[in-house]
Every structure is written in structure tokens, then in C-alpha cells.
Amino acid sequence: MLEFRTQGFNGYAVKYSPFFDSRIAVASAANFGLVGNGRLYILGLTAKGIVAEKWFDTQDSLYDLCWSESHENQCVVATGDGSIKLFDVGLDEFPIQSWQEHKREVFAVHWNLVAKDTFCSSSWDGTIKVWSPTRPDSLLTIPTHSCTYSTSFSPHSPSILSSVSSDSHLRIFDLRTPSSASNHLTCSIPLHTPPSIQSQQRPMSSPAIPPSEALTHDWNKYRSPVITAAGVDRLIRSFDIRSPAQGPVAVLSGHEYAVRKVAWSPHVSDVLLSASYDMTCRVWTDGSTMGADGGGGSGFQQQHQEEDIRMRMQGGMGDPLAFGGGRELGRMGRHTEFVMGVDWCLFGAEGWCASVGWDERLLVWDVRAIMGQ
């Protein structure tokens, strides 16, 4: 496990570069993001450990970031003063572009992984905006009418984006639809909807869960209709947007406090990571590959399947809130404060990831090392 100290700044988000396996960016804030400056760290993984290649200070806290998919040196950050800034690692001090349209804190930014020429942002002002790095104004504004903590383009389509908000809803927007048609809204899913039990062998229905704020979500990288969300109620739910009325197809239970971040594996279709206020990062399977042939595949997949078999043989009904056959495969508890962000490395050996928290630490670690713990 590698470690880097973000001295005086509490981590909020971490992203591996999509171009370099040795470059990581961290968005951070002084005084836990309540008041004070922000700092964007550009870090390099070297034979001597993690080193700071560059950093950029901002006047307000940084809550999220994303790498450009079209320029290897550019990075967008979301700030507490409502602005969005684009930095170039090859230049010093100042952002090369800044946008100021949101009326409240910007809490999420995400680059379009398919078209690669736009990105989106969401804010506490109840809007989602779509931007081009070459345009001074936003291309589109979509109202959500509630504090929107997370927004993301689908990794399978350049025109579909999603969001989760404080009103406990997951929303899907299709930008190909007319704007007059509910502002591109095609689907709105109440996250607290209980799962359908018609295809599950359960002795009773799941307990009712009241609505609560949703803080994070992510699209599955291999199954295009599957999207996962989590938040204050500590549950991680996966939905199939082809059948929004059926409720979640999987519910993962185990975190002791709110789930701050979820991230699907770029290598394995049923594995995801979560980061929580309970100071742990956990790796899960959603149960979608149960019964699949375990032959072949990568070492990570085989280890995951072996761990899943071991857990299943231990038996028991488990948590009554859990649903769909998924389970925790392992946890990392080295952080000593809220864990705010986690991300997978796209390159090299499957299983490497990075996490940041309010303990002023970035940790780089191997998921395979914590399976079964």
C-alpha cells in the first residue's frame, strides 16, 4: 500500500488519469470543505513512492474532478463557489478556462466518455449543466429541482446522462429527446422502492426504507442498462433502467454510515468499490455472475469467484436488507476519517485502486489483497 499526505487539505475526490497509469489527481479542501481554499494535486507514482508533480490552489473548496478524455494534461474541478475550472498540467498557477453559472456549490463533474468533447456538472442549486471546454457558456441546463450530488454520462452512449439527488431519486436523461419533453427526462426511479421478490427465494418481503439523500452513483461498464446508487441510508442499490418499476435488482448492505462513493470495476462486470463515512472502503459482488462457469478468466476474476464460493458456503440468511445474492468480498480500513472518494486504475494488473479521505491521506492499494478480510 502506497500513501501520500495532502497536508492541510482534506481529500474529496480522486481520479486516475485515462492516459497514464502513473498519474493521479486529487481534489481537496481546507477545513473539511466548510471554509477556506481548495487544492488540486497532480501526483505521480514512482519507484520511490508517490510524489507531487504539481498542485493548483483555488479560492474555494474543491469537491470533485474529472480528467479530460481528449487532452492528456487537462483536468476539470468542481468548486464550492459555484465555478468550474479547467487546469492544464503543463501550465502554471492559473486555470485555462473558468465557468461561473451555477448558483450554489458544484458537487460533481464528469467527462463524456464516448463523445469525449463535452462534460457535465451538477450543483446544490438543483441543476445539471452540459459544457464544452471550447465554449464560454454552458451548452444545456437541465433542472432537477433538488440538490444534485452526482451526475454522470453513460459510458455506453454520448447522449444519455444520469443524476442522483437529495430527493432520493435516480434520473435518466436522453439528450436526443426534445427539450420540451420534460427537459429530456426519460426515467425517474425512487431509490427507496423495495425490490420485487417474484424471482427471489426469500421468506418475507424486504423491510420498508424511507426516502433519504442519494450521494453517489455509477454506471456498470459492461452491462449498459445497469446503474448503481447509494447514499445516506447506507444501502447500495443496482437498477436495470429497462424495468424501472421493478425496483432494485440488487441491494448491498453492510456499511455503518452513509456511502459517499461507488465505482464499478473497469475489469470485472459484477465487482464494485464503495467508500463510506464509516472510514472503510469495501469491495462487493452484486451477485450477477453467480452460477457462471468459473473456468478461464483473469487471476482477479478467479480469486473473486473463489472468495464468492467461500462466502456462500458459510451460508446463513445474512442481512435482511440485502437482496439479489450480492455480498461483500473484503474491506480496507486504513483510513482514520470519512472516506470521500475511490477510483480504479484502468491499466496494469486488475484490482489496483486509490482512495482519499478527510484524514488528509491518499492511499493506493490492491483490492485483491483485502478480499476475505
β-strand amount: 35-45%
Q: Give the N-terminus to C-terminus distance in angstroms.
A: 15 Å
* Largest sheet descriptor: 4 strands, antiparallel
Whole-angstrom Rg: 20 Å
**What is the number of helical segments per DSSP (H or I, 4+ residues)?**
1
Are there runs of 5+ residues with pLDDT below 50, and where? 198-204, 292-297, 312-317
Record the strand order, biggest sheet: 1-28-27-26
Number of strands: 28
Secondary structure class reads: mainly beta
Verbal overview:
The structure is a single chain. By secondary structure, the chain is mostly beta strands. The protein contains one helix and 28 strands. The protein has one helix at residues 299-314, and strands spanning 2-5, 10-16, 23-29, 38-46, 49-58, 62-67, 74-79, 83-88, 97-100, 106-111, 119-123, 127-131, 140-143, 148-153, 160-165, 169-174, 185-190, 214-219, 226-231, 236-240, 250-252, 259-264, 271-276, 281-285, 327-332, 339-344, 352-357, 361-366. It has a four-stranded antiparallel β-sheet, with no helix packed on it. Strand 14 (148-153) and strand 15 form a beta hairpin. The two termini are 15 Å apart. Residues 198-204, 292-297 and 312-317 have low confidence and may be disordered.
Structural features:
4% helix, 28 strands, 373 residues, mainly beta, four-stranded antiparallel β-sheet
Summarize the model shown.
The chain is mostly beta strands. Helices cover 4% and strands 44% of the residues.
Topology:
Blueprint: E1 2-5, E2 10-16, E3 23-29, E4 38-46, E5 49-58, E6 62-67, E7 74-79, E8 83-88, E9 97-100, E10 106-111, E11 119-123, E12 127-131, E13 140-143, E14 148-153, E15 160-165, E16 169-174, E17 185-190, E18 214-219, E19 226-231, E20 236-240, E21 250-252, E22 259-264, E23 271-276, E24 281-285, H1 299-314, E25 327-332, E26 339-344, E27 352-357, E28 361-366
Antiparallel strand pairs: 1-28, 2-3, 3-4, 4-5, 6-7, 7-8, 8-9, 10-11, 11-12, 12-13, 14-15, 15-16, 16-17, 18-19, 19-20, 20-21, 22-23, 23-24, 24-25, 26-27, 27-28
